[in-house]
Specification:
This is TauD-domain-containing protein. GO terms for molecular function: 2-oxoglutarate-dependent dioxygenase activity; metal ion binding. Strands 3-4-5-15-7-17-6 form a seven-stranded mixed beta sheet, with helices on one face. The longest helix has 17 residues, at about 285-300. The chain has one domain (about 65-350): Double-stranded beta-helix (4-Layer Sandwich). The chain is of the alpha+beta class and about 350 residues long. It has helices at about 60, 100-110, 120-125, 125-135, 210-215, 220-225, 285-300; strands at about 15, 20, 75-80, 85-90, 115, 155-160, 190-195, 205-210, 230, 250-255, 255-260, 265-270, 275-280, 305, 315-320, 320-325, 335-340, 350. Helix content is about 20%, strand content about 20%.
């Protein structure tokens, strides 16, 4: 993949860290930000359209393991809810063997989202290590518009500080979505962590698309399995923070109900951010059905888990079976929130209805 660098823009580093200003005499220089080397730049590199590749899910290899949860043998695991989410302490992700990474992929697929606490060893190893970690789970995706560490385009960064503007034109900052669902091969297992965070706020919500489907009536489930939906990445490129567009957006048709390639579980696969219409329906029909499903996802608190961030935490989730939303409720704190995401792509979504053809 070739690229030509034309422009690089770097976000300003402010004096705020973890929500409080460092009180020192005016003549004293600001304390250097520990992760300044991971500040976002906005390169104008251009990339060609993504091409299809054969994906073998890491979790599939763990199915043959006599104890596919052995990497958690010495850990303290707390289930956040009965059907979604686990909170784990006592595992160093940076030192996992390839076999243990396969087990990890299977565990995340089964639980939907898992947060690992105390991961400073991993976080301090830097962007090169993050990239190699992600490649174990699939081909890495480059965000078409966001910032990334200098020289590491595969690491997607989110960044806000005291100088950032919080734009919210709606009643809430909650936007349920599955990352890049408009791609032909959207992400599977995804890793995200914060390098700096406000003292409170900035939590992340997750919703089980397996449970969102399962609680619908059998009649509705059967109907949804017959449907396809158009997912679009065009709208997300119309306003770009760094003023760059590295790859043109696309629109892709996916099944409304997909099947996980390893667990076999079926999951609802629509989201308000990227899904635009139901294929074959009149506009009013499509909007009626999609709005019903979006409302169902948003209101089903019994299918949701809320991750409260602690320093040096890492969250891994399976984009195929969960939806998520960031919560931007900390603007008044004037604090820095600096996060990094590693985004391996997975297979083209597998229809739950075996007879469905996805050639169109």
């Amino acid at each position: 993949m070739s690229a030509t660098l034309t422009t690089t823009v770097t976000e300003p580093v402010t004096s705020l860290l973890n929500g409080t200003a460092k009180k020192e005499p005016a003549s004293t220089e600001e304390e250097p930000y520990r992760y300044a080397h991971l500040m976002p730049v906005y390169s104008n590199d251009k990339y060609p359209p993504l091409e299809y590749f054969e994906h073998i899910d890491a979790g599939s290899r763990a199915l043959k393991h006599p104890n596919p949860r052995s990497f958690l043998d010495s850990a303290n695991v707390v289930e956040l809810t009965p059907n979604l989410g686990s909170d784990v302490r006592g595992v160093n992700l940076a030192t996992l063997s390839p076999d243990q990474k396969d087990q990890l992929a299977l565990e995340v697929a089964r639980r939907g989202v898992v947060v690992f606490r105390g991961q400073q060893d991993f976080i301090d190893r830097g962007a090169g290590f993050y990239t190699e970690w992600g490649r174990h789970f699939g081909r890495l995706h480059i965000h078409p518009t966001s910032g990334h560490p200098e020289g590491f385009p595969y690491i997607h960064l989110v960044y806000k500080d005291a100088n950032s503007k919080f734009v919210n034109e709606g009643l809430t900052t909650t936007v349920w979505h599955s990352d890049f669902s408009f791609e032909l091969q959207p992400p599977g297992l995804t890793t995200f962590f914060l390098l700096s965070q406000p003292k409170t706020g900035g939590d992340t919500l997750y919703s089980s698309q397996v449970m969102n489907l399962r609680t619908l009536s059998p009649v509705m489930q059967d109907f949804l399995r017959t449907l396809k939906a158009m997912h679009s990445g065009l709208d997300s490129l119309r306003s770009t923070k760094g003023g760059v567009r590295r790859r043109e957006g696309i629109e892709t048709i996916h099944p409304v109900v997909r099947q996980h390639p390893v667990t076999g579980e079926e999951a609802l696969y629509v989201n308000k951010q990227f899904t635009r219409r139901i294929v074959g329906m009149k506009r009013e029909e499509s909007e009626l059905l999609l709005n019903f499903l979006y409302d169902h996802i948003a209101k089903s608190g019994d299918h949701q888990a809320r991750i409260k961030w602690e320093p040096m935490s890492m969250v891994l989730w399976d984009n195929r079976v969960t939806a998520h939303s960031a919560i931007s409720d900390y603007s008044q704190l004037k604090a820095r929130r600096h996060g990094a995401r590693i985004t391996p792509q997975a297979e083209r979504p597998i229809p739950a209805l075996a007879s469905m053809k996805m050639d169109d």
